[in-house]
Amino acid sequence: MALFNNHGNPRNRSDSSSGEEDPLIKNQNNIISYGAQEYSPSGDPTSINADIETLASGKWQPRKRRCALETVEPGSLNVLSAKFESLDYDICENHLLLEEERTKGYKFIVKKNLARWLIFLLIGLLTALIACVIDITIEELSSIKYKFLKKYVDQCISENCLYIPYLVLVISNMGPVVIGSFLVAYVEPTAAGSGIPQVKCYLNGVKIPRVVRIKTLFVKVVGVITSVVGGLAVGKEGPMIHSGAVVAAGISQGKSSTFRRDLGIFKYFREDHEKRDFVSGGAAAGVAAAFGAPVGGVLFSLEEGASFWNQSLTWRIFFASIVSTFTLNVVLSTYHGHPGDLSYAGLLNFGKFESISYDLFELPAFVIMGVIGGLLGSLFNHINYKLTVFRMRKIRARWMRVMEAVIVAAFSATLGFMMMYFLNDCKPLGEDPTNNPIQMYCGDGEYNAVAAIWFQTPEASVRSLFHDPPGSHKDVSVGVFFIFYFLLSCWTYGLSVSSGLFIPSLLTGAAWGRLFGSGLASVFPNSDWVDPGKYALVGAAAQLGGVVRMTISLTVILIEATGNITFGLPLMLTLITAKWIGDFFNEGIYDIHIQLSGVPLLPWEPPPLSYNIYANEIMSHPVVTFNTVESVRRIVDVLETETYNGFPVVDPHPKEQGDGESYQTFRGMILRSQLIVLLTNKIFNESAEIWNLKQISLKMFRDEYPRYLTIQEVNVTDEEKRYTIDLRPFMNPSPYTVQHSASLPRVFRLFRALGLRHLAVVNDTNEVTGIVTRKDLARFRVWRHRGRMGLEELVISDR
Ligand code: ATP
């Protein structure tokens, strides 16, 4: 049975003669164009056994396949971008590594382990301090802003000049947002959004350019302060995860590319797999600081990011998270004037929920709320997806992106002001939940409850909705607030500003959750179990779960943030329901944005029903290889003409096969970056003095990590091009390989679990017949739509 037609297009597996389209394979035109050779190993198109026999006997012919890059319009979900490179989490066990191990001994291992703990300690400390800077700055600036506004509103109500506070609000929103959005658009676009999708991709093994740079951290910190102070529907929690990741990457390397400073410490951690472990710790410390949730932080790294995990890493990451929460608690408690109290575990403070409990008969209500959360979350994701596609196609110039952010800031101010003006929701001052109660048109001794929600930071509003006593808000105000805030936060996510999605989702969910609670209260009057605050909490969880689709980590984060373990079951039930319902319609918001960027992310599991796709159908062939001793001229030529980052190293004597092809015995794998370092340092066989001086060590490679020169920047003279390089001491002599008959799931699992970058495909006599990279695997993707699912092949684009 031929699985692919001569365009590499999967054919009908059930009945190839019927001419019907295979229900499993969607998007038949969306495939990479391969060469003309068809994979038909057995010659018998119907017999799968014949396929297996032919593969086993080695009489097969690999399909000639080279990915043709296509140009596609931005905004497509079934595209992988060729511009993303991979990280290499495999350890290169070359001669230099063995030499280092031999000379340094156990003392070095102990030193390295101690250094690891020290780095995780520093990650926790620094991440928390950054969180404190963000929090305190926002608190101070917002308090000045809202005090100022309150003064104007109070004064203008009597003098009938309300347009003045309105203009002040618009300007005080637009001012900070211009700064933040300018920085993001012109200085560092990677700092846009929460950064969670980027960190997720990094931990999955994809190199996102500039994602862990100091410049990105700076723009992120300033950006998030300006977004929150600018009154946008955003939170500061999501960006903390990205900030933690940057801190971790920076500290663990002991150098900064941005400042061109090398402290000369922690050099032995300058490798992708070491850096990845620290970044996992940084992300966890970020979550811990944001929500006061150290266990949630560890689980977040595990659920959302980690491509590699083990016991000692868990322990170290937990240590960083605990340090982060504790440091933040000490600093913020001191700032708030009660140092010994330690009651500020995280940036997001849900307030004390000690007294809430639930009855068994309420569980169905929580499930229903999960369903609502799932529906609203998928609606949010759908609208935001359409908006993002529109932005990618139409709002491309930087000034346009800044303009859009400024318009949203002005619109947010207008919306808040109009709601305060038109909704007459007056409450007695005695139950005042806010620092700046605004009277507006309320009577003496009363304040405007809508103004109370708008004239404070979104975190404070979430707390209000959780803890305000029953009857503090009119249902109609909460309902109108929910509708507008839902749409506003949907418009805001994806703007060219640093912003988090957690708080707007929690706030929207808390609003409809409170409405749900008040609905229950009117159905069951006089029942003491109906507490609107409790339902606001469940609504917040449901909404957030419906948008981001995290389950285990989000449950634990919310349990830790509320400080109430007994509420774990309702939260879990709600989050799982929200995820299942949401997944029925579309992906989580982070995954949608990742797909829109064309990142070749590898999911946890291989595509189902794909055991009948073999390695030699997904690999690239012919392979560009280097001989064990290679001429400098050829190395330079290949690096100049090809874009590949990894090359199998083979014995120089090709063996002719019966089919006219010739293959060479596989000896190892070498990376482009290693070749660049060899060329830069002129490690040629003819310059024997270098070997004599024993100058060659791993240090040479670590000094260049992670930014290597391009081949155009390396100066190789014509004379040197006549020289040769012996690649054997530098290549990875024992990389993982697969047999050409291995199935797609087997290749996928090996690749995913070990965080590989290149996987050579060999035949029975260990000759290289093909190569598999991340893009070859990521392009097989499962699609789900309204309960149906299937396998699709993605286009690789040059964008
Ligand atoms: P990455 O971009 O993941 O860091 P890479 O640049 O080496 O790795 P890709 O960009 O993923 O490789 O490769 C694009 C396509 O080229 C893939 O289909 C892959 O199989 C193929 N390819 C990669 N290396 C080689 C090689 N040495 N010879 C032939 N084809 C290759």
Describe the structure.
The chain is mainly α. The model is unreliable at 1-50 (pLDDT under 50). The protein has a 3-stranded mixed sheet with strand order 1-20-19. A 3-stranded mixed sheet has the order 9-11-14. A 3-stranded mixed sheet has the order 16-17-18. The protein has 4 domains: 1-84 and 780-799, no CATH class; 111-338, Clc chloride channel (Orthogonal Bundle); 360-597, Clc chloride channel (Orthogonal Bundle); 606-778, CBS-domain. Helix 2 runs parallel beside helix 7 and helix 11 runs antiparallel to helix 14. The protein has 27 helices and 21 strands. It is elongated, with a radius of gyration of 29 Å. The site of adenosine-5'-triphosphate (ATP) has 19 residues, from strand 3, strand 11, strand 18 and helix 27.
